[in-house]
Amino acid sequence: MVYYFDNKSRKSSLPVPPKKEYGGLCEVADEFKANENFLIDELMKTVNVNMKEYRGYAKADHSDIGPHFHSFGSIDMNGGYMGHIGIDWPSTGAGPSFCITKYFQLKDACNGMTAGYIFPEYGEGRILAFFTDWLLEGLGDSTCTGKDLLFLDCAHTGVVSYCNDEARWLFCKGIAYGHKLCKFTVFTEFSDRFSFPSGVLSENDLDELHEDIWNEMN
Fold first, then answer.
1. HSE of 214 in the Cβ direction (CA atoms, 13 Å)?
2. Helix and strand counts by DSSP (H, E) for the chain
């Protein structure tokens, strides 16, 4: 794969320079949103340069694997930003998917976190969410799902449910436990004991699922 995002762009072109540490999630969110359009434009150049590879994968026979989402890897875009590119097989004809995430460290924190958008199929639209290293390690250990597949594929499934300051995201791989912090959602732990049901859900189904998330999925 050809990476269009070269070293010169990495060092000098981000609209808002990244920091080594951040005082709070607001700083991270403001920087992420300020750099997002530039990073997406740069990532799109990589997508366009490698379109032949993506189309080749979409047309090839992967029936031995079965339906799946394939990641083409991640691109280091400087300052903790990573670009992720992947595609559904069999192809829906929509072309490759892509997204941006940011790894960062808060001051005085022992572990890092990753920021990225999730788009639960039932709920409030896209959410800029924060995931701890602990959660991502648990997700990888129990389901072999990396950060790329989480944000490219899993991010478009499930539902986020809130109760007071607590938050839970039930999605295709399991359930993420977290909390609301100011206007942000932070997920800290993962379990594969439960996962989002397949098929189309009615309003009654969703109401029952929200109850189960807080009553049975503890």
1. 13
2. 6, 9
Q: In what order do the strands lie in the sheet with 97-104?
A: 68-76, 81-89, 97-104, 113-118, 127-132, 184-191, 174-181, 166-171, 159-163
Burial (CB count <10 Å: 0-12, 13-18, 19+), residue 198: exposed
Sort strands 127-132 and 184-191 into parallel, antiparallel or unpaired: parallel
Following DSSP, what letter does each residue of 42-80 receive, concatenated? Answer: HHHHHHHHTHHHHHHHHHS--TTT-SEEEEEEEEE-STT
Amino acid identity, residue 183?
Answer: K
Whole-prediction pTM: 0.91
Question: What are the per-10-residue average pLDDT scores of the chain (218 residues)?
Answer: 53 83 96 96 93 92 94 94 95 87 94 96 91 97 96 96 95 96 93 92 92 86
Q: Are 132 and 178 in contact (CB under 8 A)?
A: no
